[in-house]
Specification:
Number of strands of chain A: 17
Strand content of chain A: 5-15%
Oligomer: homodimer
GO molecular function, one term (chains A, B): phosphomethylpyrimidine synthase activity
Family (chains A, B): Belongs to the ThiC family.
Cofactor (chains A, B): [4Fe-4S] cluster
Pathway (chains A, B): Cofactor biosynthesis; thiamine diphosphate biosynthesis
Biased composition (Basic and acidic residues) (chains A, B): 100-112
């Protein structure tokens, strides 16, 4: 499953700079795109980019999340996993150590001797790549990017994201040190290409994958991950809840070029056969360590769902819609006790700090409907997340805060403003929000609207929503639609925030559009395949790709053509036209500049 | 092509109130939806609504644009046309007269004796319905809804929209009189069910249809119109540019329950064989009269593209992208003269007033790329539109103002604020705007984001954008996707504006969701068919529609189920649960309400 063909044009050829170049084989022209690398201060620091080659000889460099899979020079094999890009950086710091680790048990995969499902663990499914021991911080060592940033160190990871974002490494360090950005990078996930989540950087997109008790397989989940990153997912959350959770996660981690997030509570609940009241801190902690040793980069922890807040949800239209939130609420009520996550939060910080796992403090009481938006339950939890964020910071654990959910447009800004205030500007990571409840099957759109707006106002990462939200599990097409929709929202926000360089992409595409460079338009598009396919539906012939009109208006009515004709007829260069037009304009202005004289109404 | 089955469940039966009821035939339960009517002050004033019947015995009333086609009691036939609902209202006013009208000529359909295409007009295509003479205002009579509103008359049309919008007729009259709303209703289009466009009312959606030189047929266009209104289009613009323009329009008008808009310039250009410089005021005026006699309800007029503004576009990234704008710019430059539309605007007002055709003052210089947004060309034209709006008002012509285009999020609000200020709060009618240029094939989404925002801030009607924008002509699926996306944007804006009653729809759907009433969720959805299809993909069996979980999480992990279990275990009614929870909460509060004591940082 190397999938090199998905976005790669028909043939490849060696380019003069020693890199592979994708070409459409048209009269030897090297157009299309190729994977390139921006070199850093050391030979093992190479930041991948997508270089788009235009027919006018120019090229455009785009951010690339697709990993080594789109580099024809790299031989990938999902059974071997990706090469551990960061391993030497981690080892060189000398502050971590390998250790035996927690033994993997059958129940980690949901197979218990007491279970009627019985049987042994399916050994065929065990990840076959190189054997590895987990790694953790040595006693007394603070091994998180936050700790490094605070003491003034610019790590290779920070330099990597600085090159990726086209900013100075010092800005990256500052933002991490201040807690305004996170760089999720578990020491046990050396395969990732580092990325950063923070409001001063490009808005990021997370894609959820995960099997459930009803459907899906390991292979499908790994494939969904590579598929999602190919279209632009910056991180992937593995939300598996069925069997083979541990093994699926191992395959996903070993093959993922992006940070992987999880909700450990889901697996912990599997270990007690779905009975929330049987959950204990020990089982949860064991699960967190299990996942941290595998390399999970960030974990959603619903420690803000406190016993006292549960009654606040009783009059809601849709109660508690977060799975983690409802599990914790059920536990709290069953025991009439404070949440074990809240009570043991400091110990949890110590564990996460040892692996540099980033917190994603979950919003277990997020609204699940327009009616419940911005209510007391939601904001009570947010205040607790602010409190937990400060504790996490004491332990040097990187932290982001999760946000809603379902929120009508006029209530969105309050969410980001309150979160930034209460959580000391920690990165906000929101699900949408969905701006109406009435469009199941189109919730990528209801939420894409809210996502773009909240990202403009400061949300650092958007969790995608697919068309299947509320209805079923997303398939391959749904994952792609969800990612593309959210890349649109993220890029629209980058533009609105005035992110340096963001508009270059739009400008390049609009130039191509105005000049009828159809191939360039396709290659610059967020989804070249669909853009080309739609164009070809009405004008399939190859000459139509160089035609100076398209099927919408036909040759006579094309405004772009008329607009170009105006320029052509009135001079070749823009300045000439402008001069000519300005002259006419002056003549007109001299004549009074208006036809209708002011009228007394 | 009566299409009664598209959104109509399997069987129909006579209900006790004499109306047809759609039912899914499940054990005699009458669920699903049926077409109902709200009765006005007179027997011929019946406002159609979509009545959704829920499994819990409740029902929800939704705005309905689908016309008689979804009423099983009405026998429709596209060859006969719809019955002229407003005819008696128009005649009763006694201020209009029938007259012979302008003879229809072959060239009205793009067939000229000088044309190499030659041949006679295709008589088979002539609309076969009842022969009719056009109608216009008698000399000295002001026959527009604006004129009636200004002199304090509440017309049946105004009462109709008041019932439709659930507001008082006086509010409708006031808003029209003030020029803050338009009620497009040509006296020659008696078939329409009146609707209103204004910021105090529900946000409306327009769908464009129209053949071009490259593709499409008359039948397809009529079918696209009924298809678009079935999914919620409030008006339809026929932007045909190829052959059979006149005849296509006749079929569309006679079968349309919604107002029809056009851009007369497109047909005028056909009459001069696509040579912009050969356009004359006479040819244009003749075309406007031709279309007004047919019944076109609103016309886009690019009278704001003045000679002096053309040079302002010379340094743009994408020049002039409006077809009408580029045609007028070409004409102005070819003759080095002021626009004949601007120069003859007062005479045009007189013509439109005689039929109650509404102006849609076109933004011919709208930006076609992020780079060109909010530039001097765009705003210079907007100022002229403000001037023209005041002139139109003097002639009692209802007027709305068209808006962009491509605009990044942070520049959207300036558009609506300036438009409202400059154009005395005349209704704004915007195309999107698209919030980024980089996603051809997804421009329904790039623009849906901008559309929702600008509608929240006061835009009265949104012109849809389909996935084929920039790439090709929309097919049936694209039209549906475009309409649904824009209904989402419009409804999200209605919610954000706090439109009375808007949230009832969301609440009903969220109640159904929380209570696992799957059939009710589907029937309340903006697109019931796709919602049902997506659900059935993973859980197809009929029992799954009553299952208290779904395929996303499976039975063990369903948060809704857990949330409901919490309620069940802790008391049957909400108040009981609340009490029990509140008691626990008090106990907890008494214990200090926190686990972590304040920590000195």
């Amino acid at each position: 499953m190397t999938n090199k063909d998905a976005r790669t044009p028909a043939s490849t050829q060696k380019s003069s700079d020693g890199e592979q170049t994708a070409s459409r084989g048209e009269a030897g022209k090297s157009i299309g795109w190729h994977k390139a690398y921006v070199e850093g201060s050391r030979s093992d620091l190479r930041v991948p980019v997508r270089q788009v080659h235009l027919t006018n000889g120019q090229s455009v460099t785009l951010y690339d999340t697709s990993g080594p899979y789109t580099d024809p020079l790299v031989d990938t094999d999902v059974r071997r996993g990706l090469s551990p890009l960061r391993e030497n950086w981690i080892i060189a710091r000398g502050d971590t150590e390998e250790y035996a680790g927690r033994p993997v048990r059958p129940e980690d995969d949901g197979i218990k001797h007491t279970s009627p499902r019985g049987g042994l663990r399916n050994l065929d499914a065990v990840f076959p790549g190189r054997p590895r021991q987990p790694r953790r911080g040595r006693d007394g060592q603070a091994v998180t990017q936050l700790a490094y940033a605070r003491r003034g160190e610019i790590t290779p990871e920070m330099e990597f994201v600085a090159l990726r974002e086209n900013v100075s490494p010092e800005i990256v360090r500052e933002e991490i040190a201040a807690g305004r950005a996170v760089l999720p990078a578990n020491v046990n996930h050396p395969e990732i290409e580092p990325m950063i989540i923070g409001k001063r950087f490009l808005v990021k997109v997370n894609a959820n994958i995960g099997n459930s008790a009803v459907t899906s397989s390991i292979e499908e989940e790994v494939e969904k991950m590579t598929w999602a990153t190919r279209w632009g997912a910056d991180t992937v959350m593995d939300l598996s809840t069925g069997r083979n959770i541990h093994t699926t996660r191992e395959w996903v981690l070993r093959n993922s070029p992006v940070p992987i997030g999880t909700v450990p509570l889901y697996q912990a609940l599997e270990k007690v056969d779905g009975r929330a009241e049987e959950l204990t801190w020990e089982i949860y902690k064991d699960t967190v360590i299990e996942q941290a040793e595998q390399g999970v980069d960030y974990m959603t922890v619903h420690a803000g769902v406190r016993l006292a807040y549960v009654p606040l949800t009783a009059n809601r239209k849709t109660g508690i819609v977060s799975r983690g939130g409802s599990i914790m609420a059920a536990w709290c009520l069953a025991h009439h006790k404070e949440s074990f996550l809240y009570e043991n939060f400091e110990e949890l910080c110590e564990i996460l700090a040892a692996y540099d796992v980033t917190y994603s403090l979950g919003d277990g009481l997020r609204p699940g409907s327009i009616a419940d938006a911005n209510d007391e339950a939601q904001f009570a939890e947010l205040r607790t997340l602010g409190e937990l964020n400060r504790i996490a910071r004491r332990f040097n654990v990187q932290t982001m805060i999760e946000g809603p959910g379902h929120v009508p447009m006029h209530k969105i800004k309050e969410n980001i403003d309150l979160q930034q205030e209460i959580c000391d500007e920690a990165p906000f990571y929101t699900l949408g929000p969905l701006t109406t409840d009435v469009a199941p099957a189109y919730d990528h759109i209801t939420s894409g609207i809210g996502a773009a707006m909240i990202a403009w106002w400061g949300t650092a990462m958007l969790c995608y929503v697919t068309p299947k939200e509320h209805l079923g599990l997303p398939n391959r097409d749904d994952v792609k639609t969800g990612v593309i929709t959210y890349k649109i929202a993220a890029h629209a926000a980058d533009l609105a925030k005035g992110h340096p360089g963001a508009q270059e992409w739009d400008d390049a595409l609009s130039d191509a559009r105005f000049e009828f460079r159809w191939e360039d338009q396709f290659n610059l598009a967020l989804d070249p395949d669909t853009a080309r396919e739609f164009h070809d539906e009405t004008l399939p012939a190859e000459p139509a790709k160089t035609a100076h009109f398209c099927s919408m208006c036909g040759p006579k009515f094309c405004s772009m053509k008329i607009s170009q004709d105006i320029r052509r007829e009135h001079g070749a260069g823009r300045s000439e036209i402008e001069e000519g037009m300005a002259q006419k304009s002056k003549e007109f202005a001299a004549g009074g500049n208006r036809v209708y004289l002011p009228i007394a109404d």
